[in-house]
Amino acid sequence: LIVASITFVAYEGFQLVINAVGEMKNPDKNIPRAIYTAVGMAILIYVVIALGALFAIPPEEIVKNQEYALAAGAGKILGKIGTDIVILGALLATSSAISGTVFGSSRQLAVIAADGYFPQWLSRRKRNIPRNAIIVMAITASLLIVAGGLQLILEFGSITFLLVSLLMAVANHKIRAKTHSSVWLTSLAITGLSIGGVLILYYEFTHKWAQMVAIVCLYGLLSLGAWLFARKERRKAGPPR
Q1: How far apart are CA 105 and CA 103, in angstroms?
Q2: Angle, vertex CA 180, rays to CA 175 and CA 185, nearest 5
Q3: pLDDT averaged over the chain?
Q4: Same domain, 43 and 157
Q5: Which DSSP symbol is given to 13?
Q6: What is the pLDDT of residue 233?
Q7: Domain match, 5 and 109 both
Q8: Worst-scoring range by mean pLDDT, 74-78, 134-138, 186-190, 232-236?
Q9: Do 10 and 70 reside in the same domain of the chain?
Q10: DSSP structure string for 110-141
C-alpha cells in the first residue's frame, strides 16, 4: 500500500491542465479529453517501461542499481548509447515535470493573489499569462532546492500534490450538484486519496522524519504568511459596509 501511494505521485500532473481553464477554448469538452488522454498515455508508458525492464534486466541488477537500474540495464544491452538514451529521456521527463509544475502552480498563485491572500501584483497577467507569478514560483523553487536540496522539494511537491488532490475531491463532492459529478466516484477518490496521504506521511515519518519536519515547517510558514497578509489587507480595507 505504501508503494502504491508513492507510485501515485508518478502519475500526478494530469490535473494541472485545469489551471488553464481560462486560457483555452471549449474547456468543458477539452479538459476531460486532455485528462483522460494524459492518464491513459502515462499508464501505457509506465507499464511498457516496467515490463521491458523486468524482462531485460536481471532482478539482482535492479536491486543493486535501484534508481539507476534502467540506465545500467540499457548500458549492458545497447552499450553506451543505451545509457545515453535513458539519461536523455530522464532529462526530458524532468524538464517536462518542472515545466508542468511551474505552469500549474503559477496560475494557482495568481488566483490566490487575486483572492487577497498574496500581493495583487502576482495576479497581473500579460496576454492572459501570469508572468509575475511564474517568475516568483521559479525563484522560490530554486531557493528551496539550494536551501534544502532537491530531495526536499521533491517530497514537498509529492505530498502537496496528494493534499491538493484530496481537497479538490472534497470540494467537488460538496458542489456535485453543480458539477454533476458521480457521488460514488468522488467518494472513492476521497477515500483513496485519504488512505494514500496517510500512508505516504507514515512512510516519511518512519524513514525520513527530519525531512518530514522540514516539510511541516514549510507548510506552517506558508500558511502563516498567507494568513498575516490577508489579515493586513482586511485591516486596510476597513470594516465591511
Answers
A1: 6
A2: 85
A3: 77
A4: no
A5: T
A6: 76
A7: yes
A8: 74-78
A9: yes
A10: HHHHHTTSS-GGGG--BTTB-HHHHHHHHHHH
